[in-house]
């Protein structure tokens, strides 16, 4: 059998696997795009920490039931790493959920996407990794977009927008910490523990600062179950599985579509729209995020053509 054909089949299978992984990441991104809408719905009848406790508590129980064999084999290192990541997750979800009480779903989606820009900036600050020119350009474009999206007639940004930006910063920290901690531990088990820790913190804060209760309306139950099953359990586990078979660049580019889906769902289900300058700002933020993610260098060419096994040009 021709060895070149075997190589071709291998490349085709890898391409097919990455295509499936990218499609899974797209589904996860769509699900996360709905999370702003469901959080907004849940806040109509539930307080912030009560909502977080239910969301991640149910997600932990469901994910744990599916992957119980992994949880049985958990070691202290995985649990400790999960505790750190779960605490960061609780912090970012808390500020985003509170922020949603004071800003729109569309604003929240686009502002939260700034986490993609924050990652290389934080790496430059704490790990002395010099940011590429495209990141600097992306940040500049995104800042202009933020100004147009959030400034009102008095040139002020409301508290909700500030909190969403803070949440994006926390998410960037979580991405970096996750990259450091996932080595030599099972990523799915780590993700499940992360959900459980975030839910436990939510319950603790709810007991101290609120009066926790179960949802009392159909709408609030729908929001909680959607956040738990779709956005948390399926979302986080789907991300962990898909990222094994696709590249960070593909992941970042697909995730940059999240605010687009958030704005789309907000328009379809609650009729939320932005002023013209808001749409211009949102587009600029999206361009800034894409500019920070996409490398404009010409792809490496293997001597212009692929070589066959015997050294001749294909």
TrEMBL record:
Places the protein is found? Cell membrane
Topology of this chain in the membrane:
Multi-pass membrane protein
Q: Which InterPro entries match?
A: Diverse_Substrate_Transporter (IPR051258), EamA_dom (IPR000620), EmrE-like (IPR037185)
Its keywords, alphabetically, are: Cell membrane, Membrane, Transmembrane, Transmembrane helix
Chief subcellular location equals: membrane
One protein family per Pfam: EamA
Residues in EamA domain copies: 20-150, 159-290
The record lists the membrane-crossing segments as 21-39, 45-68, 80-102, 108-127, 134-151, 163-181, 188-209, 221-241, 253-270, 276-296
Presence of the UniProt keyword Cell cycle in the record:
no
A GO CC annotation recorded here is: plasma membrane
Q: Which family does it belong to?
A: Belongs to the EamA transporter family.
Descriptive protein name: Threonine/homoserine efflux transporter RhtA
Native source organism of the sequence: Psychrobacillus insolitus
